[in-house]
Amino acid sequence: EVQLEESGGGLVQPGGSLRLSCEASGFTFTAFWMTWVRQTPGKGLEWVANISPDGSEKNYVDSVKGRFTISRDNAKNTLYLQMNNLRADDAALYYCVRGLNHHRCWGQGALVSVSS
Amino acid sequence: DIQMTQSPSSLSASVGDRVTITCQASQDISYHLNWYQQKPGKAPKLLIYDASKLETGVTTTYSGRGSGTDFTFTISSLQPEDTAIYFCQQFHNLPRTFGPGTEVQIK
């Protein structure tokens, strides 16, 4: 069974940092692009970043460039999102998602709250 | 960035009704469009990819059409289990962008 399990969410103060992890199982992790998508009641679904199978290519939405870093450890079948200098508008449910174009598999989400 | 709009933002229809949601892109995206369904407390689920291809295991009461800038998603016979929010998403360019969603309810 294909599974994606996020962890690392929590409450952080503005300007703080958090690292999300996503452990993948049930498929060949090294064959797939991986993506982070976030969701808020106000802004809906927002694509955040993606990374190529070998980790050599990374893309980000403008609002997180320079603050967030996507990475992966293929030996551990794990995707990461390092989030620095967090702002109130980064608060969201962050989904780990498989694929470049067609998102067939989603995790259950990791909740990130940003508040003082 | 490519902007995606959807209409209506919500609808209420009776069981058995035919329901159509429209999605419009701010520029030509060819057939590079997906449709997702999201139920409360759950992650989105891919229903239609490449504008009109039905995802494996998804009911044939769902269909998608369109290319360029204008797309539609149709439920041919609305059932109670179709209550959900439906999103379109373009994958023509980065960043990928989603429509704001259409909430479908049973009357």
Rounded to an integer in angstroms, the radius of gyration calculated over CA atoms of chain B is 13 Å
Strand count, sense and closure of the main sheet of chain A?
7 strands, mixed
Number of helices of chain B: 0
Number of strands of chain A: 11
Backbone structural class of chain A: mainly beta
- The stretches of 5 or more residues of chain B where confidence is low (pLDDT under 50) are none
Biggest sheet of chain B, open or closed, and with what strands and sense? 7 strands, mixed
Strand content of chain B: over 45%
Helix content of chain B: under 10%
User: Termini distance of chain B?
Assistant: 36 Å
Order of helices and strands of chain B: EEEEEEEEEEE
Gyration radius of chain A, in Å: 13 Å
Oligomer state of the chains in this structure: heterodimer
What's the overall geometry of chain A? Answer: globular
Shape verdict of chain B: globular
Helix fraction of chain A?
A: under 10%
Number of strands of chain B: 11
Q: Kindly report the greatest chain-chain contact and the residue count on each side.
A: A-B, 20 and 22 residues
Low-confidence stretches of chain A: none
- The secondary structure category of chain B is mainly beta
How does this structure look, described?
The complex is a heterodimer of chains A (116) and B (107). Chain A is built from no helices and eleven strands. Chain A is mainly beta and 116 residues long. In chain A, the strands form two sheets. In chain A, strands 2, 4, 5, 6, 9, 10 and 11 form a seven-stranded mixed beta sheet that branches. Chain A has a four-stranded antiparallel beta sheet with strand order 1-3-8-7, with no helix packed on it. In chain A, a hairpin with a 3-residue loop joins strand 4 and strand 5. The model of chain A has no long low-confidence stretch (mean pLDDT 97). Chain B has 107 residues and is mainly β. Helices cover 0% and strands 50% of the residues of chain B. Chain B contains no helices and eleven strands. In chain B, strands 2, 4, 5, 6, 9, 10 and 11 form a seven-stranded mixed beta sheet that branches. In chain B, strands 1-3-8-7 form a four-stranded antiparallel beta sheet, with no helix packed on it. In chain B, strand 4 and strand 5 form a beta hairpin. The N and C termini of chain B lie far apart (36 Å). At the A-B interface, strand 5 of A face strand 5 and strand 10 of B.
